[in-house]
Amino acid sequence: ARRQLAAFARTESAGRSRILIFPEGGIASSGERLAFKSGAFALAIETGVPVVPVAICGADAVLPPRGRLVVRPGNVKVRVLEPVSAEGMRMDERGAFRDSVRQTLISAIQA
C-alpha cells in the first residue's frame, strides 16, 4: 500500500489531493494513547511531503475502543497544527520523526 501511495504522491494530480492517515491504527481506550506506526512517516520522507498533525480531543467519549464504529453523542474538538516538514530526512530517521510528531500531538491535546 505504501508503494502505491508514494507513486500517487508523485503524480500531477497529487498536488490537488490529500491523504489522511491515522498512525495509531485504531481507537484507544479512554485516557490511553496508542503507539504510532511508522508507515505514514516513511511515506512523508519518501515523497518529501509534510505531515500535518491533527489533534482530536474527546473522540474517546464518542467512539468505542476496539468495537464497532458506532458514534455516540458528544463533543469532539479538532485542532489542525502546523505542518512538519519531512524534506531532507532519511528513512532511518522515520522513528524519531514519528515520535516527535506524536509528542507534538500529545502536548496539543493536553493544552
Averaging pLDDT over every residue, what do you get?
Answer: 82
Q: What value does the Rg take, in angstroms?
A: 15 Å
Distance between the termini: 35 Å
Helical content stands at 25-40%
Structural class: mainly alpha
Order of helices and strands: HHEHEH
Total helical elements? 4
Task: List low-confidence stretches.
Answer: none
Estimate the global geometry from the Cα principal axes.
Answer: globular
**What does the main sheet amount to?**
2 strands, antiparallel
Beta strand count: 2
| Proportion of beta-strand residues | 5-15%
Properties at a glance:
111 residues; mainly alpha; two-stranded antiparallel ribbon; 4 helices; globular
Produce the secondary structure layout:
Elements: H1 2-9, H2 39-47, E1 54-57, H3 59-62, E2 77-80, H4 94-110
Antiparallel strand pairs: 1-2
Helix pairs in contact: 1-2, 2-4
Please outline what is shown here:
It is built from four helices and two strands; from the N terminus they run H-H-E-H-E-H. Helices cover 34% and strands 7% of the residues.
